[in-house]
Prior knowledge:
Mean pLDDT: 91
Shape: globular
Distance between the termini: 68 Å
Number of strands: 0
Radius of gyration: 26 Å
Structural class: mainly alpha
Oligomer: single chain
Helix content: over 70%
Order of helices and strands: HHHHHHHHHHHHHHHHHHHHHHH
Strand content: under 5%
Amino acid sequence: MSKQQLTILYGWGIKILVFVIPFLSIWIAKSMFFPYITGRNFGFRILVELALVLWVGLVFLDKKFLPRRNWIFWAVIAFVAVVGIADFFGVNAYKSFWSNYERMEGFLTISHMAVYFLILTSVFRSKREWMTYFNLFVFAGFLVGVYGIFQKLGLREAIQGGENRIDGTIGNPTYLAAYLTLIIALTSVLFFNAKKYWLKILYALLIAFDFLIIYFSATRGAALSFMVAIPLFLVLYFWFFKNDEREILHRKIAMWVLIAMAVSTVGFILVKNQPFVQDNAVLSRFANISFGEKTVRSRFMIWGISWQGFLERPILGWGQENYLQVFAKYYNPGLYDQEPWFDRSHDIIFDWLINAGILGLLAYLSMFVALFYAILRTLKTKFIDAKECLILLVIPIAYFIQNIFVFDNYNTYVLFFTILAYVGSQYANSGEEKETEQRDASADVFRSTIAVISALIIGGSMIYFWNIRPIAQSQGIINSLMATTDAQDPVGATLKSFQDTLSYNTFGNSEVLEQLGRVSSLLVNQSNISPQSKAQFIAFAVAELEKSLAKFPNDIRGHLFAGDVYQGAQSLNAGYFLKARAHFK
């Protein structure tokens, strides 16, 4: 195969893999534990790892596919480096690297996002390729919204939204709003790049549809972010096009939109206590925002806990996924009426102060600074349309404002790093493309083939140990819970299933043990199960819990589950009382 053919093959292979990524947000992996989180994260990691194998081959074929270095590139590299150091020196480096099924973040996700960013900036070299990719994200976002409409009509259940709020296929109303905020950004970019009038109408309708879905999610953080972002966009629009006679009509429309927003905001404040507002499930959430409201009050208390944790480890923080240590150490009893555990600060600033200290927060913010710098530079070179630049300036601000009240997840991370890659690639394109040196084509093909084979061996091992085994363990948790309803021998079937699930020995062990602890506590109270079967099951459960706690002695939840199991099984073994007390202490 010639060098040119191999380049095309690798390039298209990477693009096909990457083109699947936008649709992962639609996938609800019902066979896995935490179905809204695990499937799409494992899918993303596998796709990126396979794309990395082909990218290595591409780089060995032609050096022009090396990452284009600019301010955004260095900001992403700095962010990953600082977070990696913070995780390594954190209170639990293992958890910081792997995370868990409930979050699927940690350094593993951060590093995969960085690789995704590098691949995009290297392989997507034309505006047309980027617009095609954005269209895929927008279409996927539309499907997520359609699922939300089904929830609003009662045809699908909103898992966390309840009766009044939709969560789409994202699984959480707040996450849904954050995801659609960035989808609106991509749709707006497509709108300003569209040449045909009917396309502009289509994108405008899609933006309106996304705003409707955000409204049905009843997410107050998103509403606040757009109350800042939309006026900011309109003001910047006035300033950028103040002397452009072709934009007179558009400036008038922008002025009326600003006036309408101001009037509607004042009007809503005046009527917020009226029955038609208070009786509306969505409007009442916006009308009843106050510092004394339960959710708002809890946010301030959690931020107070986070501040104390930051002061204890201010430079590099505690490492990712270790917020529970901070929450337990500085717990505020005023949170008695909230969830029993918080594993996040629910504020992006405090999250990174806890995860990686002041250095981590600065590294995170540097990506926004580099993004704005690159946008302004491309605006000067006119490589990106001015209106598109305004969108790219404003949407990250809306995204950041919303993150003051929540935190990132796969669905927002992948969109944010996509925007970073797009602006970074356009910024690189606005300069002169450096010519690559002429080399022996046959030698390049040989080196590339060897590199791909080597990368495939390493990548295959990573896929198996980092993804396939944890996926199987995640499915094993579901199977173990289903085994409790076995008609023949529920105790024996459940015990065997948990033993098999733990044998995978991945980062999912912690969640396997939590479910094992829960099931153990339930079995003890079953009158139709013999004491011998109970004793055998409890002995296995406490042995596995103790084994894990010996490895991670600061696992607060692990101690709680172990104490619960021992306390519930006192009737089977009198010595369990003292063991329960030791763990509770």
